[in-house]
Automatic annotation (TrEMBL):
Coiled-coil annotated spans: none
Function summary: Catalyzes the oxidation of glucose 6-phosphate to 6-phosphogluconolactone.
Keyword Oxidoreductase: yes
Keywords: Carbohydrate metabolism, Glucose metabolism, NADP, Oxidoreductase
Pathway entry: Carbohydrate degradation; pentose phosphate pathway; D-ribulose 5-phosphate from D-glucose 6-phosphate (oxidative stage): step 1/3
Enzyme Commission (EC) number: 1.1.1.49
Protein name, as recorded: Glucose-6-phosphate 1-dehydrogenase
Gene3D superfamilies per record: Dihydrodipicolinate Reductase, domain 2, NAD(P)-binding Rossmann-like Domain
Top-level EC class: oxidoreductase
Length: 501
């Protein structure tokens, strides 16, 4: 995030472990294609898929191209909708494939040879594999001397989920830090690749106005919502052992919380930004078991409808236990115990199969006093909200009260707004472009440091512990906005959820 002029990234060999998986074809290759289209990849950059199925370099490249063509036809979200054959041919020349078992020494000998053949010694190992391979691959890379940086940089990108609770995240960090330094580790959270998420920091800290009221004197509470219309799709087996809390909260939702709540960093550099994030997430109050239960709601979608379309319940989804008690929706109340935020609740909610797709932060300000309106027999003024919409309609909106024109004194809610589409022409992107580019250039600002990850798990661990022997899931119909208990969570505090969509 330091740069305003973009240079071609340094050359390297980028090894994609889990090359035949969804992430590579859906997101990483389209992102690399977009970077190549924008002239940001060095001519010497090589991309090498690593996986156990046998294939040649050409077969691997052809499969990727075929997938991207199909995507063009379906014009899926984030896809570049006009795969240019010439551009692709340029990229395809740099694509290779290496057949190998992730846990066999021979694979790492082959990798070493590929690096030797390149004219530079730089290498990035991208772990787009199932998380059960993370520690094994990293140990093998270390044992084979492939993380030694004497002949060029060596970096490892780790996808989520990074652990499934605090203890496993700590163990994984310890395993990584045994064979390399923190500077070599790039823990990805794809939310940080989103323009609108990066914009929270820029908007907060470049507009003098915001800082004046960004605290517990003026803000009543904050709501962070990530509502999805999709169900668990083909990921039933993974999701059933994960659930909405682990899948979305310690990572994506806490990134949003940190962007909104952190103190201004001394600079927009990796260490300063990540230190402030670690501090604010570390300041989340650890609830007792009873309070964790009181301040959380777990929901699970049952059969429902989207328009006229009938939707199955979660327990009927493929590869899901028909008696599953896994949550597909979670709502939480958390408190941040520091000077800026003491007394300001942060309400978080995320769910699958909700009525609309909407990721947003709603900042609710304290209401104006009523005395001056009492004699005029006016309703109490509604609180002002600042809504920062991350997706799909990216922008920021501020609710104000205004007088409706006419002889009567009537107040109405109006909006000041900024929509990205009205100001900026955005190229199609997957969100991974910035992250891959930053990894190539060695900028860790948008990646999670070990303490960021561990503080996130530390803050959700009380909920995981409390739910172990209690907390049945509350049903909600697919296509609706979560269980009634989530409304009660706010009603108890005399508040309501900001309407989504
Ligand atoms: C992923 C989760 O990390 O994020 C998915 O595993 C979820 O379950 C996805 O659907 C949401 O990402 P986005 O960018 O669509 O908000």
């Amino acid at each position: 995030m330091n740069k305003h002029e973009i240079d071609v990234a340094p050359p390297c060999t980028l090894f994609l472990f889990g090359a035949n998986g969804d992430l590579v074809k859906r997101l990483l290759m389209p992102a690399l294609y977009n970077l190549s289209r924008d002239g940001l990849l060095d001519k010497q950059l090589r991309i090498v898929g690593v996986d156990h199925n046998a294939a040649t370099d050409a077969e691997f490249a052809e499969r990727l191209q075929a997938f991207m063509r199909e995507r063009d036809k379906g014009a899926g979200e984030g896809a570049d909708k006009c795969l240019d054959d010439k551009l692709w041919a340029r990229l395809a020349k740099r694509i290779g494939y290496l057949t190998g078992d992730f846990l066999e020494d021979a694979t790492y000998q082959d990798i070493a040879q590929r690096i030797e053949k390149s004219r530079n010694g730089n290498a990035i190992f991208y772990l787009a594999t199932s998380p059960r391979f993370f520690s094994g691959v990293v140990q093998k890379l270390g044992a084979a001397g492939l993380l030694d940086e004497s002949n060029g940089f060596r970096r490892v990108v780790v996808e989520k989920p990074f652990g499934h609770d605090l203890a496993s995240a700590e163990a994984l960090n310890a395993c990584l830090l045994k064979v390399m330094s923190e500077k070599q580790i790039f823990r990805i959270d794809h939310y940080l690749g989103k323009e609108t998420v990066q914009n929270i920091l820029v908007s907060r800290f470049s507009n003098g106005l915001f800082e004046a009221f960004w605290n517990n004197h003026y803000i009543d509470h904050v709501q962070i919502t990530a509502a999805e219309t999709v169900g668990v799709e083909t990921r039933g087996a993974f999701y059933d052992t994960t659930g909405a809390l682990r899948d979305m909260v310690p990572n994506h939702l806490f990134q949003l919380l940190a962007m909104v709540a952190m103190e201004p960093p001394a600079a927009f550099g990796a260490d300063a930004v990540r230190t402030e994030k670690a501090k604010v997430i570390g300041a989340i109050r650890p609830w007792s078991k009873a309070m964790a239960l009181k301040n959380s709601v777990r929901g699970q979608y049952v059969e429902g409808k989207q328009g006229r379309k009938k939707l199955p319940g979660y327990r009927q989804e493929p590869r899901v236990d028909p008696e599953s008690n896994t949550e597909t929706y979670v709502a939480l109340k958390v408190m941040i115990d520091n000077w800026r935020w003491v007394g300001v609740p942060f309400y978080l909610r995320t769910g699958k199969r909700m009525s609309v797709r909407d990721t947003e932060i709603a900042i609710c300000f304290k209401p104006a006093p009523y005395a001056q309106f009492r004699d005029a027999d006016l309703e109490r003024p509604k609180p002002n909200y600042l809504k920062i919409q991350i997706q799909p309609n990216e922008g920021m909106w501020f609710d104000l009260q205004a007088k409706r024109p006419g002889p009567a004194l009537v107040m109405e809610n109006v909006e000041l707004g900024f929509a990205y589409k009205d100001f900026f022409k955005m190229q199609p992107s997957t969100g991974y472009e910035t992250l891959i580019y930053d990894c190539l250039t060695g900028d860790q600002t948008l990646f999670q440091r070990a303490d960021n990850i561990e503080n996130g798990w530390r803050a959700v661990q009380p909920f995981l512990d409390a739910w172990k022997d209690a907390a049945e899931v509350q049903p909600y119909p697919a296509g609706e906005d979560g269980p009634a208990a989530a409304d009660e969570l706010l009603a108890r505090d005399r508040r309501v959820w900001h309407s989504i969509g």
